[in-house]
Write a structure and sequence with these properties.
The structure is a single chain. The chain is an alpha+beta fold. Strands 1, 2, 3, 4, 5 and 6 form a six-stranded antiparallel beta sheet that branches. The chain is elongated, with a radius of gyration of 29 Å. Helices cover 51% and strands 12% of the residues. Its EC number is 5.2.1.8. It is an enzyme of class 5 (isomerase). May play a positive role in AHR-mediated (aromatic hydrocarbon receptor) signaling, possibly by influencing its receptivity for ligand and/or its nuclear targeting. Keywords: Cytoplasm, Isomerase, Phosphoprotein, Repeat, Rotamase, TPR repeat.
Length: 341
């Protein structure tokens, strides 16, 4: 341990043990998942972030070693710790320059926002040397005035490679592609159980994974087309969940994007027709249902059922409006007599 402490000091890191851990020190091979709570402070004790309170909830950090995490010093310090150990690490400025960007991402995640919001138009190093605001005064100040930071770490878990399911962001391209059919099947199973919200989330995750891979390809290339064909059934399933949740305009948007690319996609026309009908777009609904019958005449009975339901809803709406405005424009109606007091 003394040798490790000396090495850390040479690297500009000072470790202070708060509470010893248990068991043996892991070898931490690449692919190891570490789960830990952290508190980040300035040298004067001012707390910047605390994973136990960030975003109003306690959520530990999860890190996969060897994946080139932006704040590499966190990987360096956790591999000196045993599971259950609590320690403070004071790290020189050379290790903390990118912390403002990492903190911004973690704060975004904690409140459900895009972790890359505000970072899309320039690289990390460019932002460090620019006047770009991170949306937080303390992080803007830290970005403009780089300084040593103190990280208080409690190492909760050390999971060896293969003992846990990787998150999408931590997977290789091949691992992501191989995982999509499994996610699709899980979504289908949840849908059959009536767990629409959970099924929709699975479909969304699979689509996001494929979209991420597709962005690396040139539109129209063979691989891009193959990925797009994998996305299509997932997007249709996602739209079915949205229909059941009453998100009709989103369904119209997604299905329109599909029929723009695939003019013979019967399911896209059918779901868009149902969504149009739900929001009183009679003309558009009839056009989509007509296209469905054109593509597959065997579905005429199903389409007629949808059209009948639409017509009944339209009649009910007209009756309701007629009753609502009855007498409003009746020329024989007498105005109430004025009274004086």
């Amino acid at each position: 341990m003394e040798e490790e402490g000396r090495k850390l000091l040479e690297e500009g890191i000072r470790k202070k043990l708060i509470s010893p851990g248990r068991g043996e020190l892991s070898t931490f091979p690449d692919g190891t998942k570490v789960v830990f709570h952290y508190r980040t402070s300035l040298s004067d004790g001012t707390v910047l972030d605390d994973s136990r309170t960030m975003g109003g909830r306690s959520k530990p950090m999860e890190l996969i070693l060897g994946k080139k995490f932006k704040l590499s010093v966190w990987e360096r310090i956790v591999i000196t710790m045993k599971q259950g150990e609590v320690a403070e690490f004071t790290c020189d400025t050379k290790h903390t320059a990118l912390y403002p960007l990492v903190s911004q991402s973690l704060r975004n995640i904690s409140i459900g926002k895009d972790p890359l919001e505000g970072q899309r138009h320039c690289c990390g190093i460019a932002q460090i040397h620019s006047h770009h605001s991170l949306g937080h005064k303390d992080l803007d100040h830290l970005q403009a005035n780089p300084q040593p930071l103190v990280f208080a770490i409690e190492l909760l878990e050390v999971l060896t490679p293969g003992s846990f399911q990787l998150d999408m962001w931590a997977m290789t391209d091949k691992e992501q592609l191989d995982s999509v059919p499994q996610i699709h099947e899980k979504g289908n199973a949840l849908f059959k159980e009536g767990k629409i919200k959970e099924a929709k989330e699975k479909y969304y995750n699979a689509i996001a994974c494929l979209k991420s891979l597709q962005m690396k390809e040139h539109p129209g290339d063979e691989t891009w087309i193959h990925l797009d064909q994998m996305i299509t059934p997932l997007l249709l399933n996602y739209c079915q969940c949205q229909l059941l949740q009453g998100q009709y305009y989103e369904v119209i948007e997604h299905c329109s994007s599909l029929v723009f690319k695939y003019e013979d996609n019967l399911k896209a026309y059918y779901k868009r027709g149902k969504a149009h009908a739900a929001v009183w777009n009679e003309k558009e609904a009839r056009a989509d249902f007509a296209k469905v019958v054109e593509l597959d005449p065997s579905l005429e009975a199903s389409v007629n059922k949808e059209l009948k339901a639409l017509e009944e809803r339209l009649r009910s709406k007209k009756q309701e409006e007629k009753g609502r405005y009855k007498g409003l424009f009746d020329i024989n109606a007498r105005p109430a007599a004025a009274t004086t007091g």
